[in-house]
Amino acid sequence: MNELYLMVTITERGSAKQFVDLFARHNAAVTLTTLGQGTARSELLDYFGLEKTEKVVNFSFVTRSTWRTVKSAMQRDLSIDVPGTGIAFIIPVSSIGGKKPLAFFTDGQNFEAGEESVLKDTQYELLVVIANQGHTELIMDAAREQQAGGGTVLHAKGTGMEKAEKFLGFSLVNEKEMVFIVVKTATKNRIMKAIMTKAGMDTDAKSIIFSLPVTGTAGMRLLEPAGDETDE
Question: Using one digit for the tens of pLDDT, what is the confidence trace for 160-187?
């Protein structure tokens, strides 16, 4: 099966464009980019002859076959396996809110709609909402109405957004906010629906939402009703 994954790459800021260009050449053109900071200890940096620099984190959607192609290209063309160049990994996607966003994210990739994540029976999921900047409160208000907890916001810049009008019927701005919300799997669908209704593509927020399976949690007791026990 050709499941869908979120590909995360972390590279130095100076090489970020090379990675984004490579993704586009292999049908992973829609990418969200945000800045980060490396935390390696100074003695480790000295050992590898590196400096503490700003990092760039890229989020893209790939099928397993696209991942294999992109991974080989990163190794061959960008030497990602050389220490200090960067890292890349994939996370299975359990659902995407709507057929049009799915088509937008997977354009050019051989993906069969209806396939699901290989991880089953997870108690929690991570909702990721990609929206125009300035609409975080609208998104969180919709989520809280369905008993969601707090969220975390990252500011990001999108590439490949010019493809949006073809699939979504309208253009998307490049400046984005990514909202991360951990929810119980049993409440996921109604929270996603609430966000899509109040802050979805028919609103100024133009939110696109997807979910990732979570296999373990800590500090989530406030989401549990009294007397509820969890395994992890």
Answer: 988 888 888 888 888 999 999 999 999 9
With 70 as the cut, is the pLDDT of residue 229 above it? no
| Helix runs in the chain, H state only | 16-25, 42-48, 64-77, 99-106, 136-144, 164-168, 185-199
Q: Which residues pair with 177 in a beta bridge?
A: 131, 155
Q: Quick one: residue 141, left, alpha or beta (phi over 0 = left, psi -120 to 50 = alpha)?
A: alpha
The CATH number of 108-222, from 3.40.800.20, 1.10.540.10, 3.30.70.120, 3.30.1330.10, is 3.30.70.120
Helix (H, G, I), strand (E, B) or coil at 221: helix
Burial class (CB in 10 A: 0-12, 13-18, 19+), 211: buried
Domain boundaries, the chain: 4-92, 108-222
Backbone angles phi, psi at 97, to 5 degrees: -75, 85
CATH code for 4-92?
3.30.70.120
